[in-house]
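In the previous lecture we treated proteins in isolation. Real proteins rarely work alone, and many bind small molecules. This record shows how such a complex is specified: first the sequence, then the SMILES for zinc ion.
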Amino acid sequence: MEKDILRFLDYVKIDTQSDDTSFTVPSTAKQLNLSRKLQEDLKELGIESELDEFGVVYAKLPGVEGLDPIGLNAHVDTALECSDFDVKPKIIENYDGGVIELGHGYKMSPAEFPSLGEHIGDTLITTSGDTLLGADDKAGLAIIMAVLDYFVSHPNIPHHPICILFTPDEEIGRGPDHFDPKKFGAKYAYTVDGGIYDSVACETFNAAHADVTLHGISIHPGEAKGKMVNASDLAFAFDHALPAEKRPQFTSGYEGFNHLVSMVSGVDEAKMHYIIRNHDRAKLEEQKEEFHKAREEVLRQYPGVTIDLALGDDYHNMKEIIDGCPECVRKIDKAYATLGIKPRYEPIRGGTDGAGFSFQGVPTPNLPTGSYNHHGRFEYLSVREFKIIKNLIIEILKAE
Ligand SMILES: [Zn+2]
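The predicted 3D structure, ligand included, written as C-alpha cells:
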C-alpha cells in the first residue's frame, strides 16, 4: 500500500467521535490524538504547525510569492450515529462487483448500494461491520496530506502558498466556532469533505429554527367537559396548520422544508422544536411567515389559549459569498477539465464548515473525497476516486 493510503488507514484507527452533549472545547479530548498525529505527519514533511487552545491545527506550505494563498481544510471528528472505536478497515483489491462480507453479519451489495457498481476493478476500503469507517472526514485529511507530500517531494513544481486547517467538532456543527481567518491566512479555501469524485458544492441551506410553546388548560378529566384545552391538541393543530408538503420527506433538490425535530407535550403545556431550511433566503423568510400564520390559525380555533413562538436564524447559504469569488470556482472548473472530468455542482441539503468560513471572510466551496455511505457501518472509500481528488487539488494549487 502506498503512503497516501497508509496515512488514511492510520487516521481511521484513532477514535475521534465528537459529543454534542459536551461543553468542552473540543467536545472530546480524544480528537486531539489525531490532531497531534497530523502535526507529526506534517513535521515529517518539514511543515511546522500550531495546535491552538481550541484544538484547531494551522499550518502553511510556502509557495510562489505574489500568488493568492489558497486554503485546504478537513475535520478530525467522526459522526455520532455509529461508533468509531477500534475501526478495523478492510481492503478489497480489484473489487469484482459482488456482495461484500463486512463482518458481524453485515453484507453490502450493489443491489442495495448501487454506487458499488461503479467501482468494479477498484480498490475499496470498508468497515468490518461493527463501526463506521470515518472516511468522513479522514479521507479529506489524508488527501490534504497527500497533496502536501506531492508538492514537498516535487520542489520544481511552482504552486500557490498553501494554508492548512484541521478542525474538531464539525459533526456537531461547531467546526467554525473558533476559526481564526487571520491565522489561517487563505484568500479562499476548499473544504475536502464530501462524496462522489465529481460532485462539488458551493451552496448550502439558509437555516432557521422555531420554538413553539403552547399553553393548554388542565383540569381533572372527569370534569373536563367544556373546560379542558389539551396542549397536545394545540400542538397537533399547529403542525397541521403548516404546509404538509414542506415536510422533509416530501422535498429534494432546491425544495426547502419545515421539520418538526422534537415535541414534548402534556395537557398543560406542549413544546415543539422545528428546523426551517431553504437555499433561497426570501423563501426561507416566507416559511418563517408560515409559522406566524399557523399560530394565528390555532388561536382562531382555540380562543383564549396562548402560544409563544420564537424564531431565530442559524446559518446562511454560502453561495452569497462564493458568488463574490469567481476565481475559486474557476480554479475548480479548470482543474477538473485538466483531468477530463465534468464536475456536477450540487447544492448541499444541509450545512458545512465551509459556510462558516465563508461568512468569516474566506470563501470556501466543498470538494469530494471519493467516499460513500457516511455516518454508518456501510461507509467505504474508493481508492481510485481518492487519487482523482488528490490530483484535482494538485491542479487547483499549481501556479498558472
Ligand atoms: Zn464530514
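Summary for your notes: The pocket of zinc ion is lined by residues 75, 136-137, 170, 193 (CB under 6 Å). The chain has two domains: 3-203+317-397, 206-315.
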